[in-house]
Amino acid sequence: MMRGFIILMMLLVSGFSANAETVRIKDLVEFEGVRGNDLVGYGLVVGLDGSGDTLRNSPFTEEAMANLLERLGINVSGEQFRPRNVAAVLVTGALPPFARAGGQMDVTVSTIGDARSLLGGTLIMTPLNAADGEIYAVAQGPVISGGARVEGDAASVTLGVPTSGVIPAGARVEREVPFVFNDLTSLDLALRTPDFTTAARIETSVNARYGGGIARMIDSGTVRLDLLAAPDLTPSQIVSSLENIEVDPDQRARVVVDQRSGTIVLGSDVRISAVAVSQGNLTLRVEEAPLVVQPNPFTPGGDAVVVPRSTVGIEEEAGSQLALVNDATTLPEVIAGLNALGVSPRDMIDILKAIKAAGALHAEFIVQ
């Protein structure tokens, strides 16, 4: 199993080095001002097939439904109002950057009461507010839920999450975010993975395209553009051109392991110094086989007796001698050295931890 994993890693590394040495700037950075804005709203989903909130446990649903009907001219005050086809929900979404009034956006609908399913429901007009309290969009439409629930008198089966769903293009933008991109005189490029070497390479590549002085590295995560240094182009034109410039990004050497699945990922810059490793498995086995002893026939007052029988054993895997992992200067050499140990991925995680503790693994070790 481990050898198959190692071979796959070697193929991936060789393919990457041959075909993907450079990356576009737009895939490495975030542009200042080009971002979405989170919206949230409280609404009601109606039309459920008896799977809505139980109003005794979710009184806020009854209150919201009564207020909605009163706004529509129907007075239900003092009436016995117990519908089971209504569910209170929170509606969330992200207003896209530069969204204009009349545009549409996707929203997610999630129950907040004890409704069992949103299948077949329709969201009633729900205002969506931003952090400043202003309404920027209004959502409404049929909910698409990816789950299902079937129940009987003594059992129930749930597939997926029927208490959450989405409405594609279910919200319409009513207010625009006041931001004029072309009025900027400077623009910050924020690296998604801060690194001084990558930031310096971005600075060099941009200055080579537009001339020295337009780009300046502020720190490992920021490159600032002086948009006034290119007066013949608007900020939008500059960004449109520079985001496709290809840069060779750099990164720290990392080893990422997932103990739950036994996954091991090694970066191309991982190095291991010469180290000797010994690994063996010790197995303790306890087996219980109780024996029931019956009394002799016609024995007065005889009772059956359970006699315990236990088998205890200790096994240690043979061949747990020291294995030498030589100095490895490339990723294929690292993989070949570790693969020579011939252990499972889960045992390899423990070995990598020990090598890191010994100071022979020259990489950042991340455990998930």
From TrEMBL:
GO terms for cellular component: bacterial-type flagellum basal body, distal rod, P ring; outer membrane-bounded periplasmic space. The keyword Signal applies. InterPro entries: Flag_FlgI. It comes from the Bacteria. One of its GO terms (biological process) is bacterial-type flagellum-dependent cell motility. Residues 1-20 form the signal peptide. Belongs to the FlgI family. The basal body constitutes a major portion of the flagellar organelle and consists of four rings (L,P,S, and M) mounted on a central rod. NCBIfam families: PRK05303.1. Assembles around the rod to form the L-ring and probably protects the motor/basal body from shearing forces during rotation. This is Flagellar P-ring protein. It comes from Pontivivens marinum.
